[in-house]
Design a protein that fits this description.
alpha/beta
Length: 200
C-alpha cells in the first residue's frame, strides 16, 4: 500500500467492505481481473478460489510494478501489462487527476503509445479456455469501447460479470454496456459501486 495514494481506499473496498465477496454458482477455473490496479482484487479472488487461474490486466506502469510485487507469491495470478480493449491497438495512459486508481486509456498510434492492448479472446487463447467464470471490469471508461464492438465472440462465455461503469468519466459507458448484454440471459444485482451479472 503506497503512502498518500488511492491504494488504501482500494484496499478498504475489497478487504474491509468486501465488495467482491458474494456467492457464485460456479467453481471458478478462469478469472479475468480487468483493471487490476495493484492486485487487491486478484489477491482476494486467489484466496477465495485457490484453484482458479487469474489474469490480472493493468496498463499503467507504476501500478503494474506494485501489482507484480503484491502477487509474486501467488503462482495462479498472471500479471499482464496491457490495456483491455475491443481490438488490437496502441494506447496512451492518461492521468486525469484521480490518483493511482483513476488512469484512463485512449487509443493512439504505434509511434506514440504507452501500452499495447489485449482482447478478451487473446486471454481465452492464452488460458486455453472457452469459458470465463468471473470477469471483473474496473477499467475507467474503457468499458465503452469493450462493449461497443467485437463482444459477441466472448460475452456469451462469461458466467459472472462484475463491472463498475464510468459514465462520469466517459459518456456512453452504461449505454454501450446495457445494449451489449440485452441479447444475453443474465440476472443483475448490485454491490457497492459494482453491477454484477449472473448467467441464468
Amino acid at each position: 500500500i503506497r503512502k498518500d495514494t488511492s491504494d488504501w481506499k482500494a484496499f478498504k473496498q475489497i478487504f474491509i467492505a468486501r465488495d467482491y465477496d458474494f456467492p457464485v454458482n460456479v467453481d471458478p477455473k478462469l478469472i479475468i481481473d480487468g483493471g487490476a490496479n495493484v492486485g487487491y482484487a486478484s489477491l482476494f479472488f486467489a484466496d477465495k478460489f485457490p484453484k482458479a487461474k487469474i489474469f490480472a490486466i493493468e496498463p499503467e506502469e507504476s501500478n503494474f510494478e506494485v501489482l507484480k510485487r503484491n502477487t509474486a507469491c501467488f503462482k495462479q495470478i498472471k500479471p499482464i501489462k496491457a490495456g483491455l480493449w475491443h481490438k488490437k491497438a496502441y494506447l496512451k495512459v492518461l492521468d486525469i487527476g484521480l490518483n493511482k486508481w483513476g488512469f484512463v486509456t485512449k487509443e493512439s498510434v504505434e509511434s506514440d503509445y504507452d501500452v499495447e492492448t489485449i482482447t478478451i479472446n487473446e486471454i481465452l487463447k492464452q488460458a486455453g479456455s472457452d469459458e470465463i467464470d468471473i470477469l471483473k471490469l474496473d477499467i475507467e471508461g474503457a468499458e465503452k469501447e469493450l462493449f461497443s464492438e467485437n463482444y459477441d465472440s466472448w460475452l456469451g462465455k462469461v458466467n459472472v460479470l462484475i463491472i463498475e461503469l464510468h459514465d462520469r468519466m466517459k459518456k456512453g459507458c452504461g449505454a454501450a454496456f446495457y445494449s451489449a448484454i440485452k441479447k444475453y440471459t443474465f440476472s443483475e444485482a448490485r454491490r457497492g459501486e459494482n453491477i454484477i451479472l449472473f448467467k441464468k
